[in-house]
TrEMBL record:
Residues 372-480 are annotated as: Disordered. Keywords: ATP-binding, Cytoplasm, Helicase, Hydrolase, Nucleotide-binding. This is DEAD-box ATP-dependent RNA helicase RhpA. Residues 441-452 have a biased composition (Basic and acidic residues). Residues 462-472 have a biased composition (Low complexity). Residues 219-384 form the Helicase C-terminal domain.
Length: 480
């Protein structure tokens, strides 16, 4: 078994890791740490949750310590760019844990917080600056910071930075950091533009990959409710939330306005809820995330600002209240659950106009998502495609999952298969604790044994007669 010690890390860093309870490196750490320590540029294809922050952070810290320099005032030694404020804070928190026993200083700059304070923080020089691109450029143009002593550049979640329109900012910033630097680029996927960016800004990069794109969510149980409209979504949501009082539910809405409205509604009907989206201040976003992380609130309604990177190990349920326009976003969203070896459930709602979005997602993931209730509108495309085994069931090629519903067929067997598969594919740590295995609110929990096991996403009293269920849904649709 490889240890962190074998990877060439020094005493101070090793003791910080011990204090954190990191006893062995994750697959990406095992591969990337020696490469980065040796000074190579690196492309890492990996999702958050694989331990990639330590994969780039630890060797970078090690090299910074070995150089034994101090940054000049208003200069930096290493720069980490990430797409969202939340991710910046999360990365910085991790790095601060790693440098606790050293003199290195980690500073963050993000939009939505006081630029004046950030400017002051940068005054005495920074070893590691973690930043969102826009705010960093503002500070550069105010001459609050210069990047001329930068020897390390990390682009984290590069594909999301691209999606958020940061490409020009990234190009500008890359030119401000001296050429004789070490550059590390991490991305969950490798679209053409990222490959081009890597070609331009990295020198002879090595590549590590721990999770094939689209496969990260192997451990998540996925369900879809076909609903005739919004009211039905809210009804089912309310029911499943009630069924899972101890769960932590992250609910994705397409728009900021929709997220706020849904949060208010949930709050009104008695759920402790908060929301995070682009209209919230940095402080509000941080407070909401903290309250959710600490379990003070059990429901967080979010737009895609929370789809990537956010690491809250206790999330038991991810709801796609609205399906995302871009199928990749679904994979990122559901990756917020089933973290650190735990189980997780993803429940999607699909209104008639969303069916194509659902099919795009299924195509990307190579699975058909198990139907928890309702049926796709008549005449709409079925999952189709080749038969690929996936978390959501085997592809039947007939517009619905081949896995029989309501017969207890999914349970143990399929779960075990996928667990083994995901362990080797995704490179995620499995702590083997099975924590949350019986995650409160698993759709099948209440109606499991001794009845037809229906995995209907927590519809109480639904005893798994698929046809009956469909009829009821159709009835609703007629009324609606
Ligand atoms: P990341 O992918 O960097 O966001 O890491 C995901 C989570 O795994 C974070 O909560 C880390 O603190 C944790 N983590 C990273 N590496 C290890 C390790 N080797 N052992 C245990 N936990 C880890």
């Amino acid at each position: 078994m490889t240890t962190f010690h074998d990877l060439g890390l020094s005493k101070n860093v090793l003791s910080a890791l011990e204090a954190l309870g990191f006893d062995k490196p994750t697959p990406i750490q095992e591969k990337a740490i020696p490469m980065v320590l040796a000074g190579n540029d690196l492309i890492g294809l990996a999702q958050t949750g694989t331990g990639k922050t330590a994969a780039f952070g630890l060797p970078m810290i090690e090299r910074l310590l070995a150089e034994d320099r101090r940054p000049d005032p208003r200069n930096i030694r290493a720069l980490v760019l990430a797409p969202t404020r939340e991710l910046v804070n999360q990365i910085a928190d991790n790095l601060r844990d790693f440098v606790k026993k050293t003199h290195l200083r980690v500073v963050t700059v993000v939009g939505g917080a006081s630029i004046h304070k950030q400017s002051q923080m940068l005054e005495r020089g920074t070893d590691i600056l973690v930043a969102t691109p826009g705010r960093l450029l503002d500070l550069v143009s105010r001459k609050s910071v210069t990047l001329t002593q930068g020897r390390y550049l990390v682009l984290d979640e590069a594909d999301q930075m691209l999606d958020l329109g940061f490409i020009h900012d990234l190009r500008k910033i890359s030119k401000l950091v001296p050429k004789n630097r070490q550059t590390l680029l991490f991305s969950a996927t490798m679209p053409k533009l990222i490959a081009e960016l890597a070609g331009e800004y990295l020198t002879n990069p090595l590549k590590v990959e721990v999770s094939p794109p689209g496969k990260a969510a192997d451990k998540v149980e996925q369900y879809v409710h076909f609903v005739p409209g919004k009211d039905h979504k809210t009804q089912i949501l309310r029911q499943t939330l009630n069924d899972n009082p101890d769960g932590l539910a992250l609910i994705f809405s397409r728009t900021k306005h929709g997220a706020e409205k849904l949060m208010k509604h949930l709050d009104h009907i008695g759920f402790k809820a908060a929301s995070i989206h682009g209209n919230k201040s940095q402080g509000q976003r941080e407070r909401a995330l903290k309250a959710f992380r600490d379990g003070e609130i059990r429901v967080l309604v979010a737009t895609d600002v929370a789809a990537r990177g956010i690491d809250i190990p206790g999330v038991t349920h991810v709801y796609n209240y609205d399906l995302p326009e871009v199928p990749d976003a679904y994979v990122h969203r559901i990756g917020r659950t089933a973290r650190n070896g735990r189980d997780g459930i993803a429940i999607a709602f699909c209104a008639p106009e969303d069916i194509r979005l659902l099919r795009d997602i299924e195509r990307l993931m190579g699975i058909s998502i198990a139907v928890a209730s309702g049926e796709p509108p008549v005449g709409m495309p079925g999952p189709g495609g080749k038969s690929v085994k996936g978390r959501g069931g085997q592809r039947g090629g007939q517009g619905r999952p081949a896995r029989p519903q309501g017969q207890g067929a999914r349970g143990g067997q399929q779960r075990t298969e996928h667990r083994a598969q995901s362990g080797s594919q995704s490179g995620e740590r499995g702590d083997g604790t099975g924590q949350n295995r019986h995650a409160p609110g698993r759709p099948d929990q209440k109606h499991a044994e001794g009845r037809n096991r229906n995995h209907a996403g927590g519809r109480p009293g639904n005893n798994g007669n698929r046809n009956g269920q469909s009829r009821r849904q159709n009835g609703k649709r007629e009324q609606a």
